[in-house]
Amino acid sequence: MSDPSDDRARTIDVASLPPALSRELAAVLAPRGPALLAAHDRFAWRERAAIALAPIGAFVIVALAARAFAAACEPRHEPTWALVYALPAVPIALLVVRALLAPLRARRMPFAPGLYVLDRDVVIAHGPEVRVVPLRAVAGVSAPRRLPLGGLAEITLWLEGEPAETCLVPASEAEAIAERVEQAREAALAPEDHATRRRRHDALGELRRSTSWERASDARPRSDWARTVAIAVPLALVIGAVTLIARNAASDAMAIASASAASDVEALRCYADAGGSDAARVRADLLPRAAYAQAIAAGDAASLGRYVEAYPEGPDTVAARARWIAMEYENARSSAWGLRAFVTRFPDAPQVAEARAVMPRLALEEARRADDAGAYAYVAREHAGTPEGEEARRLHHARYERALESLLARGARPEVAAFLRALFAYLEAHDDASVLVRFRTPSSEALRVFDAMVDASQNVPIEPIAPSFSRRLSVQREALVFDRLNTAFEPLVSRDVMRIVRGPNLRDVPTADEILARLESVPEEERDARRAAILAEADDEGPDPEIRIEYTIVPTGDVYVSSPVTRPFFPSRLDELEPEEDERRFAAFLVRFAIEMRIPGASERHAFELVVQPDEHVRVDGGADAPSDGTIYEVLATSAFDRLGDGLTSAFLGSPSEDVR
Predict the structure, then answer these.
(1) CATH class of 10-191+202-227
(2) Which residues of the chain have pLDDT under 50?
(3) 0.70 surpassed by pTM
(4) Do the Cβ atoms of 499 and 530 come closer than 8 Å?
(5) Which residue spans traverse the membrane (predicted)?
């Protein structure tokens, strides 16, 4: 026998109860039984989620079926769409399965499924496995919430260790039922001795004292949703497949009727490509004829060309091709470029001979209008041997000759004049207008040597110059020189004849010690060849004409000192210096620029040298504090490079400059 005072929740399989206990339990849970609350399960309420989702699923299925329905480009959905239709069909399938299982489940029970509250227990009987929970486990009872329809109200019981249970009761009795349950719960929670407990009515006393109670499980009843889903998913797949078949049949039939009646080219093409049921006839006859009629109606060559390319075996292709070629020739005959494209596209056309005869004349006329060296060169090259080709060659040469004469007339240096003659001959022969300007920046080793020479020649500390000629700062100064030179040439020489371009900086020339270090591991018999290769690599010969500018920083023996009262900075011999507030000394220097002009493949090198020096007097504003060493040297270097720009302009274009020394 079991202990009647055991208050654990139990799960009892009604089917396993002896007939007597089953009848007693049915009597307790009967409509006129002792239950304080008897709320029978209502299918519409318990399955409200499935009922709410099923119409949505049906709407989604209809919307999916309507997508591209009777569309010529997609008359049929792919077989995989059965899965797409099956997904929204799942709520429908779930509702169907739940509706079928509910009466089957009810038939296996001797009483109506639902929720029952007794004096000492709560019986949760939604299926054949009944959960009996002590009334003490009820943590709270909600106030009745009246539903808008049906004259019903819902009451929720919160259970300790169990899911909350919501049930429906008549709205007119809801308050009374909730009050009875609450009173019973309070009574169950009140302290009582064993005798009092025995005197309290126990509707499930016989069940509690039976061996069935002892064998009852503490686990909650198994949910039947796993079985529901296992049945609903295959059913949803069946619904999806049937929907797909019906939808495709109706859509294909309407798509065929619509495309055929309209003779629409795009619709017919889409229908054939989509694999409609009548695709073979559409491809062979309906589509080519509709496309030809459309091309004729458009009235342009492009439409006819697209038709010929799309339907090479069409019933009207021969006539379409002849008409297309005639229209293309008419469009191209006023332009040399158009005729050249026509001959390339239609080498067998009857109009090709006429096109070849007029192309040279048209090409020369277009080159004259452009007055461009490249256009003249193209005509001379493409129509060599014709009078027009020879005239284009003459005009091409004259354009370079005029540009060269205008530059030489400005009085360039002899070295530059010789270079310009060779350069223009090269540019004319190669039909390339680019001339690179490339710089070779002093190496850090050369700048350290400069500082060492200055320190050795003076008996007072001199601020080092090397940090002020870093690669970054040097590149900025070189850009200023390039811009000055480019600005000077731009208004004088057309860019189609000569174009000044900033090229990459030249590589550093290795010192003798660096060359020896690189030759240490080279066999004696290979050293001469290796040395020549190292020097050739440092020479960095390029494929384009170049103006190379290599510069070195040379000390003059003078120094710059600060003079805050008169001139900010001035060079003077050390023995002439007077003490000033800023006692720093800065090395005076000059910049020696070696300019070399190269023509690819030419052994002759045209070169000259410019030596520039910063202004004797420069002003450096350091604000409230004394200017930094870098700022002072930067001002001096910028002054020198400004002079270089003037010197290069004078050398190339003959403009005199007083700053070049």
Answers:
(1) mainly beta
(2) 1-2, 565-570, 572-580, 624, 656-661
(3) no
(4) no
(5) 49-70, 82-101, 225-246
